[in-house]
């Protein structure tokens, strides 16, 4: 009986002393690797020309890992779009504090990620990105403070600003003659923020 107990302890000790099996990459790390690869490929190719195999080879992620998280390159693009939208939303949250600084920060970000945003805005993903921005911005700007700063209904102000932003960025990314980042930031601020502010309302809507 003692020998049996000793043997069981020995087996248990061997089991606990074994190194833990390596787990698969975390989803955020997989997305990070695939996003970086997609960005690199977009520097030289159009999105339609890039294959899942290209992305897999560039990233070093296995086919099994890719398809465990994404069913296609379009699904990967949606995941990247979600991540990008969240970044822009965070920048937009400072609009009411400093519209000029927030606009310039956004434009600089778009410029640094120009290849990706050209795909997101002009490659058929614009409606998805726009819907994502509206969905995420609406709760942030539903406060009494935001409503008091606009002369139009809150949801209309958000939709107008988001739609105008998408159109401005879409237009800018298609221009052959580059405009300075400061100029585009001024356009963004002047066309998406100021028109909805209470101080700029037509006289009949102004508070007395």
Describe this structure in words.
- By secondary structure, the chain is mainly α.
- The protein has 2 domains: 24-71, Arc Repressor Mutant, subunit A, CATH 1.10.10; 79-205.
- It is built from 11 helices and no strands.
- It has helices at 2-17, 27-42, 52-59, 63-69, 73-92, 99-112, 114-122, 126-140, 144-149, 154-173, 181-192.
- α6 (99-112) crosses α11 (181-192) and α10 (154-173) packs antiparallel against α11.
- The model is unreliable at 10-24 (pLDDT under 50).
Q: Which keywords apply here?
A:
mainly alpha, 2 domains, elongated, 208 residues, Arc Repressor Mutant, subunit A
Write the layout of secondary structure elements.
Layout lengths: L1 H16 L9 H16 L9 H8 L3 H7 L3 H20 L6 H14 L1 H9 L3 H15 L3 H6 L4 H20 L7 H12 L16
User: What is the chains' assembly state?
Assistant: single chain
Q: Return the domain count.
A: 2
Order of helices and strands: HHHHHHHHHHH
What is the mean predicted local confidence, pLDDT? 78
Cα distance, first to last residue?
Answer: 95 Å
The helix tally amounts to 11
Number of strands: 0
Shape: elongated
Largest sheet: none
Rg over C-alpha atoms, rounded to the nearest angstrom:
25 Å
The chain-level structural class is: mainly alpha
Strand content: under 5%
Helical content stands at 55-70%
- Give the uncertain stretches in residue-range form: 10-24
């Amino acid at each position: 009986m003692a020998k049996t107990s000793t043997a069981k302890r020995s087996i248990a000790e061997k089991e606990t002393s074994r190194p833990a099996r390596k787990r698969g990459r975390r989803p955020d790390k997989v997305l990070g690797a695939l996003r970086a690869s997609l960005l690199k490929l977009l520097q030289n190719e159009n999105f339609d020309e890039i294959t899942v195999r290209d992305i897999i080879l560039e990233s070093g992620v296995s086919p099994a890992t890719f398809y465990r998280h994404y069913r296609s390159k379009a699904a990967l693009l949606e995941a990247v779009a979600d991540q990008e939208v969240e970044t822009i939303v965070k920048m937009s949250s400072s609009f009411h504090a400093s519209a000029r600084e927030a606009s310039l920060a956004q434009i600089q970000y778009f410029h640094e990620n120009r290849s990706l945003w050209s795909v997101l805005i002009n490659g058929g993903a614009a409606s998805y990105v726009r819907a994502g921005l509206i969905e995420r911005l609406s709760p942030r700007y539903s406060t009494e403070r935001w409503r008091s700063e606009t002369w139009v209904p809150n949801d209309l102000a958000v939709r107008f600003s988001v739609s105008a932003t998408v159109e401005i960025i879409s237009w800018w990314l298609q221009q052959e003659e580059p405009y300075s980042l400061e100029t585009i930031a001024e356009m963004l601020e002047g066309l998406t923020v100021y028109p909805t502010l209470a101080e700029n309302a037509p006289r009949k809507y102004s508070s007395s």
